[in-house]
Amino acid sequence: MSKLETIVEVHQLKRQGFKVAAITRKCNLSRTTVYEYLERDFEEALEWVEILKTRSRKLDPYQKQILSWLREHPDLSASQISYWLEERCSFSDVGESTVRTYVRELREKHTYRKC
């Protein structure tokens, strides 16, 4: 489900009378995220989603390197990639969860499945 679809679903559930705690369980979101989504109207949500599509990410300069590692070692974990970024590229400005998300998105986009 896309972010925009999730925001719309959160608003629909709220209009149906669900409490924030119930919405968090149904949508698998944190309470702070649900409150943030409820503060946005549809137009703001559209703008926000478009900004997210075009922003640069901290790991973008290392994308080619990460893809080459994934091509060579399809079973490579995000944790190992994080370690290699620090060791081989002297890059440690992101948390491991950021690397995990980035690697997961690259795997989906380039169809590199983990063995």
TrEMBL record:
InterPro entries: ATPase_terminase-su_N, Homeodomain-like_sf, HTH_IS21_transposase_type. Pfam families: Terminase_5 (PF06056). Residues 5-70 form the HTH IS21-type domain. This is HTH IS21-type domain-containing protein.
